[in-house]
Amino acid sequence: MKRSILLIALLGVFAAPLTRAEEPSMCKSMCADTKQQCANRAGRLTELDTIAGEEKNPLADTANRMRPESAREAERSDFMKRKRERLDACDASYLRCTRGCGPAISKNAASAK
User: Fold this and answer.
1) d(CA 113, CA 108)
2) If exposure means fewest CB atoms within 10 Å of the residue's CB, which of 31, 34, 81, 112 is most exposed?
3) Could you please report the per-residue DSSP string of 35-83?
4) Dist CA 55 CA 81 (whole Å)
């Protein structure tokens, strides 16, 4: 279930159209807004995950404490890996967007001559 939510979110990020504005500063601003929205989405998805040891149910928390430390560490490591992957996807999307602004910048410079 969680993986399907992550997959849908990542597909949405990658499927978002690149913004190409005539004015470079506007284009970069739009890219920054898109990156912020992506980071917010990634944060919400991360909140859906639970770090090992942060159970709200006391019985589940007790059962979690009975597990070996290595299992809890592996779970924490996986949680941090998923979080980093989500944020890296946002960064990659931002870089693609700003590269898409490049032709607009060179086009404006050529028309100014």
Assistant:
1) 9
2) 112
3) HHHHHHHHHHHHHHS--TT--SSHHHHHHHHHS-HHHHHHHHHHHHHHH
4) 19
Among the listed residues 97, 92, 85, 93, the one whose alpha carbon sits nearest the alpha carbon of residue 45: 85
For 36-95, write each residue's pLDDT tens digit.
999 999 988 888 776 544 666 777 667 677 778 888 888 889 889 999 999 999 999 999
Alpha-carbon distance of 34 to 4, in angstroms, equals 22
- Encode burial over 56-72: b for 16+ CB neighbours within 10 A, e otherwise: eeeeeeeebeeeeeeee
> How many Å is the Cα radius of gyration of the chain?
20
pTM surpassing 0.85? no
Token pair recorded at residue 110: 């050529």
